[in-house]
Amino acid sequence: MVFVMAQEAELLYRTVPWEESLLQSAGKQAAGPLFDVKSSDEAAVVQLHLPHSETEDALLLDGLLSVVHITDEGLSILEPLEVTPTHVVVNVVHLSLLGIIIDPFKRLLKWRINGQILVFLRPPGREEQILDVHLLPNNVLVEEVAEKHRGVVNITLSSDCELDIDHSYSVHCEPEGFLTHPESKTFVSRFGPNYHPTFQVFLTTSTERVVLKVKDQGGKEVWKYPVSLEERRVPAESRVPADQRLRSVRTQFINRVSLAVLDQLLDKLLEREVITYSEMMSARVKPQFEKAREVVDTAVKYMLSNLTNHNFVNFCNELVHRKGKPQVLRNMVEGKNCSEITEVLLSVFNEKAVEVAAELLNEIKCNKEADQLVSLAVLDQLLDKLLEREVITYSEMMSARVKPQFEKAREVVDTVHRKGAAASRVLINALQEIDPYLYGELDLTEAKPRGECLKAPASFVRCYL
């Protein structure tokens, strides 16, 4: 994506899921990612160049592509100033949600788009290694797909090809004899929120090199590339068993895992029959003050993580210069991320952390965020939500619990570790699914060189909610 600026400003953008019902009401279909764009000075951005995946033949159709602008009031359609072979160019007055859309009736005339083939290598097991093959439009960000599959290795290769929407494709591997699943798959142009592999190729751990081919439904080869696995494969003797990896991060796990994640882990462990119902109930206890602290911690982190960088810096400055006692020193704030600033607020102001945070938000003119923070921090509302989502039962909500957060975490990790490597693997996989940020910080990937297990994880660089 290209930004044309009238002046210097700080820009933040991310991709967000499309709301298909909104597009259908307008008689349009998504033709690229939906971007949420923010700027410290909205007037600084005068033009956007959004990447598309249409072929040159398709672009001959007049009015094929346009840009949708989505706000709280609804959507509006922006006609392009220009459509280049790679981008749709539009002028912008207000920043919000922006994405390329296509006329579905004109799409019927031209089904072929510029596509890409992405290949990821999963951490090898004892007997096999798996290649995940993705068939995608070429304006899907590689980073976006990789973010959904933490722990895998993106194999850099020439990925460009042309793909026909609603046509069937198959993946073939040389040498032959390896399983590919499924045998064929219909290609659909989609833009998140999930990016599941289109195909998986199951190889032996001794395989060092393969040639991957993608063929269309007529058997024509549309893409071919040699894939080297030798440099990316980790020797079997250097892979650390799951129980050893879990033991190596025991202290960090106890100190850093949140109560919300622990409750979900317990559900996963019970579901997989790693722990018993009584073991789950023994761990799922905490006193009322710990519940309140967890609510405050979650609410403040949520608020800070949704501030722009500009507002986050202003918030920290206001925190240092806040009048009255207790005071926060500059060295307590400098270089800290949102998770660490939350800990400062809780340690200095205790139960008044939300009140102080809301006060600072009002000072920097983030009044809406201040109101939302106060609402999020109400314990009864949070408990109602947990009961509504069936995370806790009515008796769990009403009962007084006696075990604090660290004790609860300690019991979970120790109970699972005693049950061996298989049980530890269930906990590690569940943690990766529920809290990928903590999973990454604890460095629990299977293919770790010997001697690295005892390294303490680095400080969080992203806020955990």
How many extended strands?
A: 19
How many structural domains does the protein architecture include?
Answer: 3
| CATH architecture title of the largest domain | Orthogonal Bundle
Predict the CATH topology of the largest domain: Death Domain, Fas
- Uncertain runs: 234-238, 378-406, 447-465
Could you name the CATH class of the largest domain?
A: Mainly Alpha
Distance between the termini: 29 Å
Protein structure class: alpha+beta
Number of helices: 17
Q: How does the overall form come out from the CA principal axes? A: flat
Mean of residue pLDDT values: 76
CATH superfamily caption of the largest domain: Death Domain, Fas
The value of Rg in angstroms is 25 Å
* Oligomeric form: single chain
Sheet with the most strands, sense and barrel status: 6 strands, antiparallel
Quote the beta fraction: 15-25%
Helix content: 25-40%
Overview of the molecule:
By secondary structure, the protein is of the alpha+beta class. The protein folds into 3 domains: 2-107, no CATH class; 112-228, Immunoglobulin-like; 242-442, Death Domain, Fas (Orthogonal Bundle), CATH 1.10.533. The protein is 35% helix and 25% strand. The protein has 17 helices and 19 strands. The chain has helices at 20-25, 104-107, 142-147, 242-248, 250-256, 259-271, 277-283, 288-305, 309-321, 338-349, 353-363, 367-376, 379-388, 394-398, 405-418, 421-434, 436-442; strands at residues 2-5, 11-16, 29-39, 45-51, 65-71, 74-78, 82-83, 87-91, 97-102, 112-121, 128-137, 153-155, 160-164, 168-174, 179-181, 185-186, 199-204, 209-216, 221-228. Strands 10, 11, 12, 13, 15 and 17 form a 6-stranded antiparallel sheet that branches. A 5-stranded antiparallel sheet has the order 2-3-9-5-6. It is flat, with a radius of gyration of 25 Å. The two termini are 29 Å apart. Mean pLDDT is 76; it is low at 234-238, 378-406 and 447-465.
